[in-house]
Amino acid sequence: MSGLKGMVRDAQNAVVNIDREKMNRGKIIRVFPRRTKWTPTDDLAFVGEPPLFNLPDLPILISVTFTWDIKKGIELGYSWQKRYSRHSVQLSGPALQVGSSDLPFVSSIFIKSGVIFTSRGCPKQCPWCLVPKREGQLIEINIENGYIVQDNNLFACSRSHIEKVFDMLSHQKQGIKFSGGLDIDYLEPWHIELLKKIKVDELWVSCDTEKGLKRLAKARDLFSDFSIEKRRCYVLIGFDGDTVDKAERRCQAVYDDERGFLPMAMFYQPGLSYRTVPKEWRYVQWKYSRPAVYRKK
Q1: Greatest pairwise CA separation for the chain in angstroms
Q2: Helical spans, DSSP H, in the chain
Q3: In 3-state terms, the chain is what percent helix, strand and coil (to 5)?
Q4: 158, 121 contact by CB (below 8 A)
Q5: Bridge-based pairing state of the strands 176-178 and 200-207
Q6: pLDDT at 28 over 90
Q7: How many other CB atoms sit within 10 Å of the CB of residue 204?
Q8: What is the mean pLDDT of the chain?
Q9: Which pLDDT score, from 0 to 100, does residue 148 have?
Q10: What is the DSSP string of 18-45?
C-alpha cells in the first residue's frame, strides 16, 4: 500500500501543462479506467488501453473517479504516454484531487450527455463520505443543460442558485432525476414548490444510519404528492458495526409497506481498495436494490 500511496503522491505533484482553452471547448482526449453508466460516449472518450490508430494532436487526460482505480489509472498513464509520446498526458480526476483541482470541472466533458453537476463539495462532514476530503467545501459552478442532477448536496446551495437550476430544469423534455441525492437536513417547503413545477422522474434521499429513519418522516410528508415510484432512498449498509439483520430491518423500514421510499442498498466502500461484498451481505444488497423483488407480495 505504501508503494501505491507513493505513486499517488507523484501523480498529484506532477505538473503538466494542458491547454485550458482547448479543454473548455471540449477539445481534449479523455481516458477512463473503467466504463460506467456515466462514461461519455463521444469520439474523444476512451476506456482502458490506447488504440493503435492515430489520434488528433490534443491533450490527453486520464480521469480516475474511484480510489480503487488509481493504480490502474497510473498504469494507463504510462501506456498512453508511451503510445502517444508527442501528446501531453496528465493523470487527474476526483480520486486524485484533495480539496480542489488545478483543472476546471466541466461536467459535459467527463460525464455523458444529460448528466450535470451545478455544485461541487459539501458543507457536512459525514464520517462515511469522501466528498469533503476530495472536493472541499461547497462551491457553486456553472449551470449546464441536463436532466440527471448529480450534485453532492444541491439543497445546501444558495436559494438564487437553486432557483436558477430549477429554471433550467423546467425547460428539459426528459423527466428529471435527482440521483445525486437531496439532503433531508436542508429540505424546505419552498423546495417542494419548485419540484412541483418540473417533470420529476426520480427523487433520491439517503438513510445512512438507524437515526436517519426518523429524518425520513420529514421527507415522506413533504414528498407526499409524489408517487412511491418516484421516491427513492440510498441506504448505506455495512458501515461501523452494522449487521446484516440491522441492515435488512432498516431497508424494510425505509420501504414501510409502500408508504415510504424505494430503498437502494449501498455497501460501504472505504479507502484506496475496492472491498468485495462479503457473502453474508450479498443477499441483502441484491434484494434491496431490486424493487420488483422486495415489493412482491
Answers
A1: 62
A2: 2-13, 20-24, 70-83, 107-110, 131-135, 159-169, 189-195, 212-222, 244-255, 279-287, 291-294
A3: 35, 15, 50
A4: no
A5: parallel
A6: no
A7: 19
A8: 85
A9: 96
A10: --HHHHHTT-SEEEESS--TT---STTE
Quickly state the pLDDT bin for 15 (edges 50, 70, 90). Answer: very low
Q: What is the DSSP string of 136-201?
A: -S-EE------SEE--S-GGGS-HHHHHHHHHHHTT-SSPEEETT---GGG--HHHHHHHTTS-EE
CA dihedral 215, 218, 223, 225 (to 10 degrees): 150
In tens, the pLDDT along 81-112 reads 999 887 888 888 777 764 444 445 566 677 88
What is the CATH number assigned to the segment(s) 107-294?
3.80.30
Residue 109, exposed/middle/buried by CB under 10 A (0-12, 13-18, 19+)? buried
Residue type, 81: Q
Please tell me the least confidently modeled range out of 127-136, 183-192, 247-256, 278-287.
127-136
Nearest to 58 by CA among 33, 35, 80: 80
Per-residue pLDDT tens digits for 222-242: 999 999 999 999 999 999 899
Is residue 37 within 8 Å of 6, Cβ to Cβ? no
Quick one: pLDDT at residue 106? Answer: 63
CB–CB of 223/231 below 8 Å? yes
Q: If we measure between CA atoms, which residue out of 120, 233, 146 comes closest to residue 198?
A: 146
